[in-house]
């Protein structure tokens, strides 16, 4: 006989729980960078097509997040930072997350192909696959370079936006990719410095776990140095201009300075003040990317060089 109480015990997620599966904070970055990539492209796009393109790119990003949460439900239940997510907290069944991720993946790719072009749609499909399979299933649990290689998934959206408008790839879209790609490691490693125990307990081979915090500090500073030339190079392309260049110079000087401060930090001093400098650099990294793309957007409106 079927136990009626079994139905009562089954999780009944609310709408906001299913929205949380899509990682809205991450998706907001995907939406913004994709929109900028589309807007600064040298092709006029009908506002309705532009809106639908960004919408379906956002759905594709959300699909990636749902698939990531479905696969990572075991380690999410261990890490303090992720224990409140819908699946480990028991608000949504993992099978529902898988179904949502697959359905949104198909819808987003097919609709982007119909609204924009099939090159952009194929690019979106590859991005979803890269994040959900290459990064989540393989890289994240296998190598301390997980953030470096896997960061490509988060760097593709501006290229997809550009492809929606132009149907192809250019040096400008590649440099927007490079801006996000080389920003990702110092951004996440700064977070990992004050969240090391989470990754250690979950068995995730983050650089801070496998090579120690001193190595992570060296890598953070090195990547701020590698990142700066690409950010400035973007400023002398067709999408750049004096406003963007001024913003890029200030932000990269601040980011390099922050990386240097993190490098010179003594671990005992960092523990004593609760990783104050590392938290400050992590916060700066959030503003860094947003302000670069905002400057591109405003520069496009004003006109470039």
UniProtKB/TrEMBL annotation:
Q: Which domain of life is it from?
A: Bacteria
Q: Which reaction does it catalyse?
A: heme b + (2E,6E)-farnesyl diphosphate + H2O = Fe(II)-heme o + diphosphate
> Could you tell me which Pfam families the record lists for this protein?
UbiA
Q: Which organism is it from?
A: Paracoccus marcusii
Q: Which residues cross the membrane?
A: 26-42, 48-71, 92-112, 118-139, 146-169, 175-195, 216-236, 242-263, 284-302
Give the protein's recorded name. Answer: Protoheme IX farnesyltransferase
- Similarity remark: Belongs to the UbiA prenyltransferase family. Protoheme IX farnesyltransferase subfamily.
The protein's UniProt keywords, in alphabetical order, are: Cell membrane, Heme biosynthesis, Membrane, Transferase, Transmembrane, Transmembrane helix
EC number(s) recorded for this UniProt protein: 2.5.1.141
Q: Which HAMAP family match?
A: CyoE_CtaB
Q: How does it assemble?
A: Interacts with CtaA.
For this protein, the record's CDD domains field holds: PT_UbiA_Cox10
Q: Where in the cell is it found?
A: Cell membrane
What are the recorded GO MF terms, alphabetically?
A: protoheme IX farnesyltransferase activity
Per the record, membrane topology reads:
Multi-pass membrane protein
Write out the function statement from the record. Converts heme B (protoheme IX) to heme O by substitution of the vinyl group on carbon 2 of heme B porphyrin ring with a hydroxyethyl farnesyl side group.
Write out the pathway annotation from the protein's UniProt entry. Answer: Porphyrin-containing compound metabolism; heme O biosynthesis; heme O from protoheme: step 1/1
Also noted in the record is: Carbon 2 of the heme B porphyrin ring is defined according to the Fischer nomenclature.
Q: Which InterPro entries match?
A: Protohaem_IX_farnesylTrfase, UbiA_prenyltransferase, UbiA_prenylTrfase_CS, UbiA_sf
């Amino acid at each position: 006989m079927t136990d009626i109480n079994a139905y009562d015990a089954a999780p009944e997620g609310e709408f906001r729980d299913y929205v949380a599966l899509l990682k809205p904070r991450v998706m907001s970055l995907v939406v913004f960078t994709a929109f900028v990539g589309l807007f600064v492209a040298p092709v006029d796009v009908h506002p309705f097509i532009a809106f639908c393109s960004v919408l379906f790119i956002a759905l594709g990003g959300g699909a990636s997040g749902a698939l990531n949460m479905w696969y990572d439900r075991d380690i999410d239940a261990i890490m303090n930072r992720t224990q409140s997510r819908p699946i480990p907290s028991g608000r949504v069944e993992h099978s529902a997350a898988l179904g949502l991720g697959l359905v949104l993946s198909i819808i987003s790719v097919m609709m982007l192909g119909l609204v924009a072009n099939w090159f952009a749609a194929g690019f979106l499909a590859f991005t979803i696959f890269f994040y959900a399979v290459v990064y989540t299933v393989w890289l994240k649990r296998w190598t301390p370079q997980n953030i470096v290689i896997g960061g490509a998934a988060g760097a593709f959206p501006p290229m997809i936006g550009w492809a929606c408008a132009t149907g192809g790839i250019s040096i400008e879209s590649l440099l927007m990719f490079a801006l996000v790609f080389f920003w990702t490691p110092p951004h996440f490693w700064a977070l990992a410095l004050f969240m090391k125990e989470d990754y250690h307990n979950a068995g995730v081979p983050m650089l801070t776990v496998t090579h120690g915090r001193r190595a992570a500090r060296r890598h953070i500073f090195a990547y701020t140095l590698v990142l700066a030339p690409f950010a400035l190079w973007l400023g002398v392309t067709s999408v750049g201009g004096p406003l963007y260049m001024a913003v890029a110079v200030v932000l990269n000087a601040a980011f390099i300075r922050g990386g240097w401060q993190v490098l010179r930090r003594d671990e005992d001093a960092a523990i004593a003040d609760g990783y104050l400098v590392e938290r400050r650099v992590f916060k700066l990294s959030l503003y860094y990317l947003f302000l670069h793309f905002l400057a591109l957007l405003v520069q496009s409106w004003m006109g470039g060089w």
